[in-house]
Amino acid sequence: MTAAFRYDVHLPGGLEEGKRYPVIFTLHGKGSNERNMFGLVSPLAKDFIIIGIRGSRILGSGYQYYDLKSLGNPIREQFDQAMRELTEFIAYATAKYPLDPQRRYLLGFSQGAILAMSLAMTMGDRLKGIVALNGYVPAFVKTEYPLRSVAQTSIFISHGEFDSIFPIGTGRENAAYFRTLTPNMTFNIYPTGHGVSPENQQDYAAWLLEDAGLTTDEQEQGVITL
């Protein structure tokens, strides 16, 4: 099996042979890249394997996973392809690296958040949880995709109160939708625009550590970058 995406891997230091580690797959926003996302999760790199996935489509000096017909209206064929290839990539990485398949997380911003929420709905309990920062769920995902239960999936959604790209009402709609699907849903609003505040980072980092069941005995020192 080969990878459909370019990616960066950050491994905790002092890996123990035979041990499986929780993993965070990061998904960047439109026009960004996988390395820009690492700053959002770097404090967790001693506890999690971090895999940053680069979108396969060039956009200016950055990348995207799919293009748009208009704001909020993905090109369906490209979106479908990204969803399929990301699902396959998660399986690829699970086979290649010492990942714990019971503790696989996605963390996405903007376009990455859109994909993270959509993948949660199609992968169900094959993901332990997601962090979705300033995104939305396309209507066709809700009505046309084959969906799996997320009742056992942990969901952390946050949104900027002053987001000019996806208004705060979009975040509230996300929260209301996922509350009907899982009891394991956290929704926070932060006084920011289309971005991620330090408080937001602190909150989802603490949430990820708790949800993954990490203890001080499990935590490793240092990080190896591939």
From TrEMBL:
InterPro entries: AB_hydrolase_fold, LYPA1-2/EST-like, PLipase/COase/thioEstase. It comes from the Bacteria. Keywords: Hydrolase. Residues 23-204 form the Phospholipase/carboxylesterase/thioesterase domain. The keyword Lipid metabolism does not apply. Pfam families: Abhydrolase_2 (PF02230). SUPFAM superfamilies: alpha/beta-Hydrolases (SSF53474). GO terms for molecular function: hydrolase activity. Belongs to the AB hydrolase superfamily. AB hydrolase 2 family. This is Esterase. It comes from Paenibacillus lycopersici. The lineage of its organism: Bacteria, Bacillati, Bacillota, Bacilli, Bacillales.
